[in-house]
Amino acid sequence: xxxxxxxxxxxxxxxxxxxTLSCRASQSVSSSYLAxxxxxxxxxxxxxxxxxxxxxTGIPDRFSGSGSGTDFTLTISRLEPEDFxxxxxxxxxxxxRTFGQGTKLEIK
Amino acid sequence: EVQxxxxxxxxxxxxxxxxxxxxxxxxxxxTHWIGWVRQMPGKGLEWMGxxxxxxxxxxxxxxxxxQVTISADKSISTAYLQWSSLKASDTAMYYCxxxxxxxxxxxxxxxxxxxxxxx
Lengths: 108, 119
Known about the structure:
The structure holds two protein chains of two kinds. Chain A has no helices and eleven strands. Chain A is an all-beta fold. By secondary structure, chain B is an all-beta fold. Chain B has no helices and eleven strands. Chain B has strands at residues 3-6, 10-12, 18-25, 34-39, 45-52, 57-60, 69-73, 78-83, 92-98, 108-109, 113-117. In chain B, a hairpin with a 4-residue loop joins strand 7 (69-73) and strand 8 (78-83). Chain B is globular. The relative contact order of chain B is 0.31. The chains are: A mainly beta, B mainly beta. Chains A and B meet through strand 5 and strand 10 of A and strand 5 of B.
């Protein structure tokens, strides 16, 4: 099973700042089959990024993903108030699919 | 428009059985895999398993194999997650998800079904 470790656990930033979230895999993620999701309280997760760097439909271009192999990054270029939420990475190229434990992005 | 609509919240006692549902619409139900994800209170996301409604091919995460049963009724475009004997530790939110392919990201999510197991 591929273990995904996200860091930091909590990230405290202000609107307008740049956020960098990390996801490290215990072994190489095949074909960059890595996704990022955003979850707000009381809501289902929402797909942001797939294939490590492709934005899902309707996702603003301030969200970008990068990385390959075992190291992946989600960057939010300029934080908007609605971006403060939980973020999860997921690998879907190997069974069982696994998620990271999440990064909480909170307002400083 | 693709939609996954799940059944409502459930409150059950330990030892009881339960079957929750997820109805797909807006796409070809029989030609897309549909899966289930668990989120325990205050915790992260866990992939449970996935089914291909066209032929009922089902795969489970090792963590959930033997603990739950995933099924589908393609005649009514509905997938199911069931337990034969609930435990308090089954208390969680359960989401159905629809990837575009077997090895695919989860681009569509149901609204979630909250299952509470308490004596």
